[in-house]
Amino acid sequence: MDFNQYNWQDKIILIADDDLLSRKYFAKALQSTEVKLAFVKNGKEAFDYCCDHPHLDLVLMDIKMPVKDGIITTLAIKKKCPEIPIIIQTAYAFDYDKANAMASGADGFITKPIHREELFQLLDTFLS
User: Fold this and answer.
1) Which CA distances in Å does 90 have to 49, 62, 100, 125, 128?
2) Which domains are assigned to the chain?
3) Can you give the pTM of this predicted structure?
């Protein structure tokens, strides 16, 4: 896959994840796309960021975070800003995890470890 075919320089993605290695992975993986990235470490920060930036293009939301988890945060964001696409990302790959994520209003679901090709294909459905 040619990752250089993706140019999202006019897009902003919020990465909501308390894990430093995950945040670094997304920054490195998406660098070639020129997308603008913002980072938060918990659900409260994610909710506040979405409220302050309603023209945000997408949120990559981890399920397990401090303060507010990703499911509760997704529900809150979708109530306030339903037009912002949210992709739940998690290390929990059970069917009920995906069902809970989608029931919260998430627009997509991806499991860790995240493979770059799968990530790009999923992001492309919302950013292109």
Assistant:
1) 20, 6, 12, 19, 24
2) 8-127 (3.40.50.2300)
3) 0.94
